[in-house]
Design goal:
The protein is of the alpha/beta class and about 130 residues long. The chain has one domain. The chain has 4 helices and 5 strands.
Length: about 130
């Protein structure tokens, strides 16, 4: 089995850590992850239940990092944003129209992009690959 891509748009927050925490909570509560049928009591229990395969969701991302690392999300570098979207301030439409950022991500890793609307930050976009 190969890694499965996942992605989410969420409201912009001053802190990407806060946005990640809220998104993880929301996904856990929704049950929209691999292993939810085991009815875990916490996101941590969901991770333990999923073993090495992971949950194939944002639940596998435990923190924000400055660079690509396992179990974390990092910002997509400005030079990559420019090459993908022609700007460092992509809109939701630009992101939905070009998923080539997945080439930058290994299994068990994630990225985030600040999404702009009318020149101002409006959302975060999180994307990554499951472990398996």
């Amino acid at each position: 089995m190969g890694g499965r891509p996942w992605s989410y748009f969420v409201a912009f927050e001053i802190s990407v850590e806060t946005a990640l925490k809220k998104l993880r909570h929301s996904v856990f509560e929704s049950g929209d992850y691999r292993g939810s049928e085991l009815d875990p009591a916490t996101p941590e229990e969901a991770l333990v239940n999923s073993e090495a395969s992971g949950t194939a969701s944002i639940l596998d991302m435990l923190h924000v990092s400055d660079s690509f690392d396992y179990c974390s999300v990092c910002p997509l570098p400005d030079e990559r944003l420019r090459s993908l979207f022609g700007t460092t301030q992509p809109t939701r439409e630009m992101i939905n129209g070009n998923h080539d950022f997945y080439y930058d991500i290994d299994r068990g890793q994630g990225i985030y992009i600040i999404v702009y609307e009318d020149g101002a930050p409006n959302e975060f976009f999180f994307a990554g690959y499951s472990f398996d």
